[in-house]
Design a protein that fits this description.
The chain is of the alpha+beta class. The protein is built from three helices and five strands, in the order H-H-E-E-H-E-E-E. Helices cover 59% and strands 16% of the residues. The mean pLDDT is 81.
Length: 139
């Protein structure tokens, strides 16, 4: 039973009592109270309808947002996986200028300040003064 139905039932009970709403103070009071209850009941029903409509709209927006997130973050996840496979914080790779063999520069090589090519055995010093790695031939 909705609030409006309950108020209508209460109004019917009051009318069944044949209260004099014109002359009786109690009758006037009950009549005004029932009128206020009717307005409150209608307002509550409107609020419930609006809340239900907003809930449905939020569900639609949530679904749309989930679709957008899957598109946006799916690409980001793939990029993160590619980066994690190609790049590690502990080392990086450069090409030997002499034989073009890949040289792995890790923390140990940085600490020593030079690296030796495993293929042609050329030694290179590592200059980090400009925050870049440069290879200088030391043979």
């Amino acid at each position: 039973m909705t609030i409006s139905e309950k108020v209508a039932y209460l109004k019917g009970l009051a009318e069944g009592l044949n209260l004099d709403t014109e002359k009786s103070k109690e009758g006037k009071l009950i009549s005004v109270m029932i009128g206020i209850l009717e307005e409150v009941g209608l307002s509550i029903e409107d609020l419930e309808e609006n809340a239900q409509a907003l809930g449905e709209e939020i569900d639609v927006l949530s679904d749309d947002l989930a679709d957008v997130e899957s598109v946006v973050f799916e690409d980001e996840d793939e990029d993160d996986e590619d980066e994690s496979e190609d790049y590690d914080d502990d080392w990086f790779e450069v090409e030997c200028p002499t034989c073009e063999e890949p040289l792995i520069i890790d923390d140990k090589a940085l600490a020593e300040g030079f690296i030796q090519c495993p293929n042609c055995e050329t030694k290179y010093s590592l200059d980090l003064s400009d925050d870049t790695v440069e290879a200088d031939d030391e043979e």
